[in-house]
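REQUEST FORM: STRUCTURE PREDICTION
Request ID: SP-0412
Submitted by: Lab K.M.
Chain count: 1
Length (residues): 218
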Amino acid sequence: MVQTRREILRSLTISGLLVGSGLPAPAQTPAPAAGEGDPAVATVRRMTEAFEAALKAPDVRARAETLTAPMQQNFDLPAMLRLGVGTRWREIPADKQEALTAAFGPYLTATYATRLTAATGSKFAIDPKSEPRGNGRLVHVTVTDAGGDPSPVDYVLNADNKITDVYLQGTVSEAGTLRTGFSEPLQEGGPDGLLAHLRKSTETMLAAPAPKPAAAKP
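STATUS: Completed
RESULT:
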């Protein structure tokens, strides 16, 4: 069978005979820019883009709607819930674990939507390379507020490149904050108490009124 010119060039390239032959080499795909090949960084970039989009929404409920799908995609919500509950998770019946997991996603999304209320005008700068952290990766982000003050935010990701913890100022763990907040509801009402806490807190956060626009200066 007669080979085409493309097939001849490909066979010469594979065998190493094309070098110095004077024949034009086939076009090659450009190398990816720094950070594009790092899946952990890609996860965090998707989330920061979602945060930036949510900042344009008028109130907490609208911001939560913007964040729902990205957080489901990029956070390991069941793992974060287990970290927040701690060792008592194993004692919770499977049906109640399922109910808690279903309520936790909207709760954490509303929590982040609420935090963004104070973040208007913030900018996110992502370190283009992640670092090893246990079996996963650590991605550094610098958040600069509207006044120009920078704050470090570190994202911990698992082997599947999903976020399992977030450190504010390098020391304040999201998992630790959840554990503190869940302690009293669990102590007083067990799994049902925590479930009621998640649902009520979510409802309260989403009902927050939109901030009033700043009065115009005379």
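NOTES: Confidence is low (pLDDT under 50) at residues 1-35.
Reviewed by: T.R.
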